[in-house]
Hints:
- With about 170 residues, the chain is mainly alpha-helical.
- The protein has a single domain (about 15-155), classed as Orthogonal Bundle (Tetracycline Repressor, domain 2).
- Helices cover about 70% and strands about 0% of the residues.
- The chain has helices spanning about 5-10, 15-40, 45-60, 65-75, 80-95, 105-125, 135-145, 150-155.
- Helix 4 crosses helix 5 (about 80-95).
- The radius of gyration is 17 Å and the shape is globular.
Amino acid sequence: MAEVAPATLYNHFRTKDELLQGVALHIAVTLCRRIAESYPHVRDAAERMAIGNRRYIWLAEQSPGWALLLLDIGLAVPNLAQQVTQDARADLRLGLKQKRFRVTTEAAAMDLISGTVGQAMRSVALGLAPARHDVAVAATVLRGLGMAADEAVAVARRPLPEFPAAG
């Protein structure tokens, strides 16, 4: 860890809350970029949605503290929520165009995705979720977006693409 004097940090952040928000935003942007880089070759919107859902839940398994920080700060910082949902919104729109999804409104669908995945992350981070919860949640989201049960489960069970190393 780089040694930085507290006074130096406050040249960029006025308060501890701003510092935490900056860290959370950096983590969210980095995670979103890495998730997107893991599946540019995937054309099916349903599979893209499942990969994104499962990767966020994977973060909660790998780094529970960071996941809980992102979730808590995300509630208070609209920029963070907008950044995190940008790719899901694009995949939702692609799925509507491909006729893979059928939703009442885009806003309701985004609430379904964000709320379900966010709660799943919290459950996993707190050690309250069963094994393979990522697959079950991704299938549930796909069902909520209008896919048939068998197909939603099949898509959610597909192997995840390799996750690019941090760089």
